[in-house]
Every structure is written in C-alpha cells, then in structure tokens.
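Minutes, project check-in
Item: structure for the 372-residue chain
Input as provided by the requester:
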Amino acid sequence: MSFKDLFKKPWEQSNPQKRLAGIEKLNDQEVLKKIAFTDQYVDIRVAAIKKIKDEPFLMQYALALDAADCPSLLKEMIRDLCYMIHSPNNLVALIQGLKSERHIDACMRTLIRSEFNNQEQFLAIYNNTSSQYAREEAAVRIEDPDVLAKIVQKIKDENKRFRITGKLTDRKVLQLLALKDTSHPVREEAIKQLDKRYPTESKEVFITAFFDEKNYNSIRNITIKHISDQKQLLEIATGKMDYAIRLAALQKITDQAVLEKLVFHNDRFWGDAFALLPYSDQRILAAVGQIGKSARADRMQGAKELLSLLQQNQQAAHLLWNYMKKMVEVPHSDISNHVDDGVKGRSNDCTHSDFQRHTDTGTGILFPPYPV
C-alpha cells in the first residue's frame, strides 16, 4: 500500500483487489457508473456494472459496448445486461439498436416473458431488427390479420407460422397456404380457417387438398364434406384410404344404384352401404351378426330371425342373398340348389329343415333360399 492510499476510499485504492473488495460494499449509483466507464481493470468495471440499478443507464451502456471495440469480457457483459433490464421500452430500444443477434435474442427472451403487448412496438421489432428469432417472436404476437397476411410466408419457424395462420382472414393467402405450404400442420390450419370462413368459395381448394398425396387423413376428414361429385365419392369409397374416410364418402352417396354396388365391394364395407339403402333394416343387420358367431345355437337363432325378416322385405332379401353368395365360400352345387328352388317358386316356403340342410354342407353358414 502506498502512502497516498491511506487517504483514499476503498474503491479508489491502487491495488485492484482492494478496489474490487471496496466495490462489493459500495452502493452509490453515481460512483458505480463512473467506475464502470473509467476503471482500467475489466473485472472491476464488470463488478460495478452488476450493482447498477439505473436501467436507462444500463441500456445506453450496452449499446455503447456493442458499438465499441472493447475486451471480450465486456462484450459478454451485454448479454447479462439484457437480463438485468426489465423495462419493455428499454428492451425494445436494445432489440432495435444492438448489432449482435445473440444479444438481441437475449433481450427478446426477456421481453416476451413480460406482459408487454404493444402492437406497434412488435411491428417495429419485426421491421427493424436483424435477428430472425426476434422478428418471428414479434410476428407471432401481432394481432392484425392484414399485417400477418403480408408476412406469414416469410416466417421460417413452422410452429410460429402455424400460430399466425390461425389468425389469418385473407382468403387468397389461406388458400395458398392450404395448397403450397411445406408444413402439414400449417396446411391443415389453413384448411380449417377456410372451412370456417370461406366454405363455398374454397370448394376447389378442398377437393385438391383432399386428393393431394402429401396430406394426412386429418385434412381429408375436414375436406371430404365438401366433395359432392358422385363419381369422386364412389372412387373414394372403393379406394384404399382410411376406413373412416371411405365411410364418410359412402354416407354422402345419394345414388341408390351406386349403393347397391358398394354392398358387394368387400366384406367389411357392405354393412355400412346396406344400412344406407332406403329398404334396409337394422334388425336384418343384427341377425346377420348373430349368424357370424361361433356357437351353433347362436347361428341358428340368427338364421331364424333373418328368415322371418327377409320374408317381409323382398328387396332387402334379394340384395342380401346376392351379397352372401359373393362373400362366403359355398359349394357351387349348393348355390345352384338355392337358385333352382327360387326358380320353381318355393323361395317363400322355407322351413327350419331348409336351414339345417344347408349347414350340412360343412360350411357352417346358413342360407335362406331366395331368388337371384
């Protein structure tokens, strides 16, 4: 210690370690500000900065460090300053004034943790900062759909683009996103907004989106209701898409002749088509289900019920009989016997023995002898 140090305050000592210790006990903000700018030791300046509570000063200090050619330790201090400042206005000024994207992002993370919701400031951040992260964080908080319509396609982050799409009202932009966006969630959200706002004007978009191979079933579940062309619906119902989608297409088919053809499409789908026919009977379907059970007694009971019901409904009988011939493996001679019985006019004179006779073929399936 020099003789002069005897008359100096602890933070003015010539020994850096003593100055550093003196700063730990110092609370005078003006003195700390002076030390932050003038001390020749970086560690001491950093220690002084950490004790300063004046946010406007800290903001100006961060901007000064960002622009100056100073030691890397002080440059690193900018990031700490971004977390020390809590005033939204000061943070916005830093975000727009700093050059380093890393420091801008630190300030933006602090800003979005607050309840700040100044729309003009968010728009200013989007327009005036160099950081893609800060720009997109600002964009996702903008509420004006007209502004969002202009910037949504510039947003690289898929999740943020998805959130922005949910706020859009511009039909053309939504249609473009629904068909062209690279993200499936974004396309789906655009479809939902079109379905909600412009269902009539977007019919062609819905049809295109439905048949687009890159789309998942969640989009098809929304768009299927906008398809009315009977030919297209038939193609969907008989295609290889998810069963629920095929069923939705089936339920939109109004051509009864088409429905009758669908009954014979495959062994899983026929019941749904059969139920949509005007002469179908849910009791008939229940009886068919009973026949399909493993226990012989259950099959016999189902057959009896089915025979009784079909004798009351010749149209349904004709349709169901043709289906059962097509879908179940039965010896050809046995089917011929049924046909012969029908031709000779004995189709409505069937008894329990008729069912028993046909179970003896070894198939275990019961057939009422109805005409083809």
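Outcome recorded: The CA atoms of residues 175 and 200 lie 13 Å apart.
No further action items on this chain.
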